[in-house]
Design a protein that fits this description.
Elements (H helix, E strand, L loop, with lengths): L8 E12 L16 E7 L3 E6 L8 E4 L3 E10 L2 E14 L2 E8 L4 H19 L1
Antiparallel strand pairs: 1-2, 1-7, 2-3, 3-4, 5-6, 6-7
Amino acid sequence: MTRKKNELIRSSVHYFGTSLGGGFFGRYKAEKFYERGSGELWLTNNALYFRRFLTMDKFAFKIPINAITDISSGHAIAGKISLPPILKIHWEKDDETLVSGFSIPRKVAELSQWQLKLTKVMKAKLK
């Protein structure tokens, strides 16, 4: 998996889904946010992108950096539980608070790198 010039970080991840308001059962079903599975997650200075493996879509979905309100981690999201920690991206779209969850299997240290890079990009956008 090669990184492109404008990417800050890229990882193979498992997407657990997006929940409404961060609740355990309230899954967000609009667009392609309903489709769980393995894929690639990458970050640029403008957005966070996720593309599922084995699909024809160029981008399954995009979360603009300006829409991200918080970053956290845990072991449950959108009706699923995981032993590896889940990176939770809190963001807003159309006046709804959403939380998308991604885990980086067998690479707990990489989760910290993601949190640091996302925090840095979010702070740069606030300036």
